[in-house]
Predict the structure.
Amino acid sequence: MPELPLAAHAVPAAFYARDPRDVAVDLLNKLLIHEDPVHGPIGGRIVEAEAYLGAGADPGSHAFRGPGKRNATMFGPPGRLYVYFTYGMHWCSNVVCNPSGGGGAVLMRALAPLVGLDVMWARRPKARRERDLCSGPARLCQALGLTGDLDGADLSTGPVHLLDDGTPPPSDPGNSVRIGLSPGKGDDSPWRWFVAGDPNVSRR
């Protein structure tokens, strides 16, 4: 993998084989890096994440009604990237967690940009401030170049890597209900966590 400006190592497999709510909190301050074949490493530090549970357990989750063509990656091995298309225009990326076949995932909602910012600016021409580059799940995917071609990618081997540089998650993370869900479809579940005070969080 190309050299990064931070000493970091791949997150161990056991990290992912847990309840998505626990994984979501522990994802904060981890590094998400796309080893782009053209532009090199692009990514940043995760500052906002939402947990989604497995089949029958969470009406806001794509896994709620069981496996299908769109959500098959959610029911595969933990530690994979689940990428889906939404609103006919945006990609969103998730970390698959729970024991294998459990159907859980964590939506990565925002990053603090760290590497490859020139590429992020080129991909997000409407951004006016650095915090606009990866603030929100669709912006994050656009900035890093994450598309459906990367659905199912192994986060330990790439080309998308989840790394730990020793920075711990916040001891007192911000917490709220999840964003953008319909009434009665999991909108009341407080399973969104974020790094309080970070300017890159999508909603402050």
